[in-house]
Amino acid sequence: MNNNTMYANASHVNHGFQHEERRPPPYAPSSGLYPALPQYHGHQNVASQYQIASPSYPSERYPTAQTQNLHHYTPQTASVNTHHTTTPASHYSSPPVHKGSKKKTCTCITIAIITLLIIAGVIAALLWYFGVFSCNGRQCKADNICVSHSQWCDGVQDCPSGEDEAQCFRLYGSNFLLQKYSNESRNWELVCSDGWNDELAKQACEQIGYPRNTYAGYSVISSRASSNSVMVMADSLSSNPNITTQSFLTKGTTCASNTLVTLKCIDCGKNIGSRIVGGTTVTSKGVWPWQVSLQISRNHVCGGSIITPYWILTAAHCVEKYSNPRQWTVFAGYLTQSEMKYATGNSVSQIVKNNFDSTTNENDVALMKLNSPLRMTSNVRPVCLPNVGMYFSAPRNCYITGWGALSFQGSGSETLQEAKIQLIDRTTCNNYQVYNGLITNTMICAGKLAGGVDSCQGDSGGPLVTQENSLWWLVGDTSWGEGCAFRNKPGVYGNVTYFLDWIYQQMQKY
Ligand code: ARG
């Protein structure tokens, strides 16, 4: 975290991501875009100008955690049974063959074979074409199977890998309206609360990707748009209370109560303590209870955010090189690095990395699954993942937090730092004076174009959050930037809204 207005009193050696590049000192005029950036002159390698995320550990300090297992294989002699067949020498001379006709026969056979092959090829191509393109429904992604539209989200698994039933529920907007995919309207529809209950709610949460035990309840809100189609309880439900799939909801137009289901699969986004706005050193625990320190050999490497008791969201570049879950320890509920020195922390069982591209920094998000769940307290709590339909736009106020460097190439912070920054729209951020087209849909820019306040090395993976509807939402994960807190070089964050489907898919899978 870099905030030129204040410094933490103590600092520790920053093991976060370092960047070798020399840059002019941060210069922070009042505001606006500043042309004429001398930094760009004479650079051969554009990528090298950016703080591309690569952990700066001297490799010898971090030998790979697994010691190589030397398997001693007993050499086995492969016995190949060679049968020597002796062809008896022919005592008879073959009947005379007319040389010309032999050639003709050969040509004919070759032509016939080629023709047959062509015909077979055409048939195969036609079959494939009609298999793929004549699918009058939806293609299962993993397999080449065609499933009719009406079979999608009907509660019966038709795709061998189950994707027809995998993402049938989602949460919409900042009040968590439940939506179900309707195979009739082929659209997402709100759910009428008539006949709804906690059991159905838990099932819906499980299908979204949350564990059953984080379920925090459902409530209802009155719907103004009662004429709109909604998903209503199937009649069969009253006669069969043991329905275990989404088959209980069908499309309807009447919702007697005129109320819709809003669903909390986890009690997220709440914090405690009054924050000193504009301050930098976080003074009490529980203000940013989702912030974790991700460490290797008791050294802080990256930040992360708690999204469920089992899952930490971080940056993919943090785990690029250190992809072995056993290398990592997660510390939750602490303010200072010294407290963590003697704490136990949580071990990691699984690391899932999105399709990260280290040259462009595309898709810089990863998930860590813990071996045992975090115990939720007022200092250890999840942040809310954004819901579909939530758009965070510039110049929305956000907060970044972390133990990263206090200045460019400086040392990491002993105490958790926070800074208030604003979202910057992609067009502005892609301006040639800023990041000149490097910002894609998987990224969000946030900071101050004037410079002076930014995240920095070691903050990576940590949260960029905003408050909405009195809850805190995870807008981004700290990813990259040119230098730290330079004018026109704001921080770049992974766009969490963009990754939602991927995140839920992983939480369902592991
Ligand atoms: N890549 C850095 C890390 O690994 C984060 C850099 C953020 N930079 C910035 N200027 N906002 O810690």
Task: Tell me what you see in this structure.
There is one protein chain. The protein is an alpha+beta fold and 510 residues long. The protein has seven helices and 25 strands. The chain has helices at 99-133, 198-208, 236-239, 316-319, 337-341, 426-429, 496-509; strands at 2-3, 11-12, 137-139, 146-148, 169-172, 177-182, 187-190, 217-222, 230-233, 249-252, 259-264, 291-296, 299-306, 311-314, 328-332, 346-353, 366-370, 397-402, 412-413, 417-424, 443-447, 453-454, 463-468, 471-480, 491-495. The strands form eight sheets. A six-stranded antiparallel beta barrel has the order 12-13-14-17-16-15. A six-stranded antiparallel beta barrel has the order 18-20-21-25-24-23. Strands 5-6-7 form a three-stranded antiparallel sheet. It binds arginine (ARG). Arginine is lined by residues 16-17, 51, 53, 404, 454-460, 478, 480-481, 484, 491.
